[in-house]
Amino acid sequence: MFHSVFTKAIWDRRVSLAGWxxxxxxxxxxxxxxxxxxxxxxxxxxxxxxxxxxxxxVLGFDPExxxxxxxxxxxxxxSLIGPVMVIGLGASAAAGATAREExxxxxxxxxxxxxxxxxxLLHKSSVVALSVAVxxxxxxxxxxxxxxxxxxxxxxxxxxxxxxxxxxLGLVFAGFALAVGAFSGSVPMTTGTTLLVAVAAWFASxxxxxxxxxxVPAKVSPFSWYSDNLPLLNGVPVSFVWLVAxxxxxxxxxxxxxxxxxxxxxxxxxxxxSSVGARQATRSPRSAWLLSSVFGKTIWxxxxxxxxxxxxxxxxxxxxIAAWPVIAADADAMQGLITAMPKELFALLGITDPALVAxxxxxxxxxxxxxxxxxxxxxxxxxTVASIVVREERSGTLDLVxxxxxxxxxxxxxxxLAIAVMAFVIGVVLMVSGLVGSALWNMGLSPVHVLAxxxxxxxxxxxxxxxxxxxWSLLPSGxxxxxxxxxxxxxxxxxxxxxxxVDVLEPFRPxxxxxxxxxxxxxxxxxxxxxxLVLGIxxxxxxxxAALRFERRDLAV
Length: 557
Hints:
Blueprint: H1 5-12, H2 14-39, H3 44-50, H4 53-59, H5 69-97, H6 99-104, H7 107-111, H8 117-146, H9 156-184, H10 187-206, H11 215-219, H12 222-227, H13 231-234, H14 240-260, E1 274-276, E2 279-281, H15 294-301, H16 303-328, H17 331-340, H18 343-347, H19 360-368, H20 372-395, H21 397-402, H22 408-440, H23 447-474, H24 481-499, H25 513-518, H26 523-526, H27 530-551
Antiparallel strand pairs: 1-2
């Protein structure tokens, strides 16, 4: 099984890929099952025809086809849920291809084998491609199986085309992540930059009907190449060629960058030196204090990627606020659309009171604080735990840290505090962006509610970051902690949303952290709540459990 780089990489990702397969199948099945409820609405077509095309573009709808199985799934599954999954999976897999091994110190060993760097990167690129393909392949199989059950009236050609396009979209951003990873050697920088570029590309494509100046950027957005011609209805469009060409270009760039990269894995524990020509310069004395503790070193290592995550999420918030004046101009039609759509559909997105989406607080929250925002923040915290604890144990780096005269619990608390501070910084940047955007576009958002929404988002992310630490400490081999935590997060998200509609699940909603974060109102509408205290206590308890277990953990690397 381990006779090649390809098979070894596949084996290392087997648990993660199995989890993604099961999660994708479950989400696809639920979305498909909602379609008959929508199709039964007699007033839906009239409501859609009253909305301007620009607003429908933001929502991912095509007014002519939305009430068909192809149009509904294109708008709901292939405009938001599917892209979020393939881009997240692709960025994670690509970051692990080179940057993660470099940070763990295993890349030197791999490069010492009689295999060229080009061959190594191409093998790993193949694994990344296979990982990305898991999501659309699973979606396609579920659609083929459920097509006759829910009267979707989908053709095999359309199913194949839509999922090929989704795979191509994921591969474009995975290829970009490969190039960034080969250039920077930093996992946080790779994932953060990729997500920032993905948000910008999505915005250019989705909001071009509202902002005329986005027409040119939209033409070069991978989202436009992927979805403009409704592949689920019309088959494979010519624009897919661009997805293939750009992916190939990024892979070639990654190969060239990787060929020239100095794999300085020996410096992963030490302050790095920067060079300009032949001159050497050490770190500024102003930042030297950060390198004297576990807490400071953790922040120092992620200082650049931290701002990428913060400004990327803030850009999404500001751009969503900027779109509100256009939405508000057709408030009645928007309210009618929301009323006519099945509540089950909104529940899948964590929106338990759809009527509030037609308010400024509800509209902004629906994107920045109820769907994409929580995903990005949870990815940041859980991914940081995986990087600074799980992978340091696997690579042996944690052994070297513990050789210092520090208690194990103090080391873990230092790392946990660093994660909390970084999440807090992102929350502050997001809060300032929200207040500035509200003032510029006269949205009238309450400053207290903006503060509360960001506090809740940070606490939700820290809860899952703490949970990931606890899972790692409880497992004999903590390598699956991130995947298990991600699975729990998806299940908890669905439990909160569907629990608001299904009587059998209603009593179990308090088991979901999203219930304590969201409740039944948008975060920008309800201010501070008791649930935030629950999230903070839960995160603290999880970290304490991890620290107690860490004191007795056998680091057998």
